[in-house]
Structure formats: structure tokens, C-alpha cells
Amino acid sequence: MIGAALLPRGDLAIALIQVADTRASRTHANLRPTAEGLLLTDMRSKHGTFVNGKLTQSATLLDGDVIGIGDCKLVYRREAKFATDDAQRAKAIDAAMTGETSADFGAMARKVISECGGDLNEASKRLGLPVDVLKNLLKTN
């Protein structure tokens, strides 16, 4: 969900992407994966949702599409882009991975490795991490 405010729903926030724009509705648009790709749907917002400058009610996003909500522009990327320097990437990952989050990520990484038949190279591709960072993550968890 994209919106102007995080709306509590139990322990889960509905708006996963919060937009700081006065023209963004509280629940402005919804993002949902489908077999065709990521589907963006306007949730009857007051000022509308735009894809590549065109007002839209619903659109399957393509890599590089620009979502417009008020003056805010979000670029959709099908695959995450990481820093090119592995040491910088490892530092960023290590800084972000603390406490329970790190343990959760370690468990998720082990699951992906298992799904890849123990192939660390394939698992590192799926996770978007260099193999050495993946190995270090597994050592600490």
C-alpha cells in the first residue's frame, strides 16, 4: 500500500510506502504481485495516481516506470540495484542487520540456500548478496 500515513491494522501497517505529499491520500494506491508482474491500483484517491505521466486506475508496472503521486515520483525497478563495491555493500548490510532482524534474515537465507540445493552461488544471486557476505551472515547466525 502507498499512502500519506501509516495506518495500523493490528501489528501490521497498511501503508508500506509512506509519501510525504499533501496530495497523497491516506490509502492512495495498492501494489500487488500478479503472474504478469506488479499491479498498481489507485484506491479512489482524490488526486489520482500516474504512471509515466498518465493518470491511471490500474497498471502492471514495467522496469523503469515512474509512479506519480502528487509531486512525489517513485521509480519501479524489477530487480534491486546494489552498490558495486562489495566492501561498501557488506558494510551497509552489516549496519542494517542487527539483533532479531539479523537472525530473521539468517533464517531466510538458510531457507533460500536449502531451496537452491545448498548452492551458495545460486542462493547469493536470489538474495542479491555476494557469496562472501552470505557466508559471513551465516557464521553470525
Structural summary, described in words:
- The protein is of the alpha+beta class and 141 residues long.
- The protein folds into two domains: 74 residues, Sandwich (Tumour Suppressor Smad4); 55 residues.
- 33% of the residues lie in helices and 26% in strands.
- The chain has a four-stranded antiparallel beta sheet, with no helix packed on it.
- A hairpin with a 2-residue loop joins β10 and β11.
- The protein is elongated and about 50 Å long.
- The two termini are 32 Å apart.
Furnish the topology, listing elements before pairings:
Layout (H helix, E strand, L loop, with lengths): L1 E2 L4 E2 L2 E2 L3 E2 L10 E6 L2 E6 L6 E3 L2 E3 L1 E3 L5 E4 L2 E4 L10 H11 L2 H17 L4 H8 L3 H10 L1
Parallel strand pairs: 1-4
Antiparallel strand pairs: 2-3, 5-6, 6-9, 7-8, 7-10, 10-11
Helix pairs in contact: 2-3, 2-4
What are the defining features of this structure?
three-stranded antiparallel β-sheet, Tumour Suppressor Smad4, alpha+beta, four-stranded antiparallel β-sheet, 141 residues, 2 domains
For the largest beta-sheet, the strand count, sense and barrel status come to:
4 strands, antiparallel
Our count of domains comes out at 2
Runs in which pLDDT lies below 50 for 5 or more consecutive residues are: 6-15
Instruction: Supply Rg.
Output: 18 Å
What proportion of the residues form beta strands (DSSP E)?
Answer: 25-35%
Q: Helix/strand-derived class?
A: alpha+beta
CATH class of the largest domain: Mainly Beta
Total strand count, please?
Answer: 11
Provide the CATH topology of the largest domain.
Answer: Tumour Suppressor Smad4
Q: What is the H/E order?
A: EEEEEEEEEEEHHHH
CATH architecture of the largest domain: Sandwich
Helix content: 25-40%
DSSP summary: helix tally: 4
CA(first)-CA(last) distance = 32 Å
Silhouette: elongated
Q: In which order are the strands of the major sheet placed?
A: 8-7-10-11
What do the pLDDT scores average to? 75
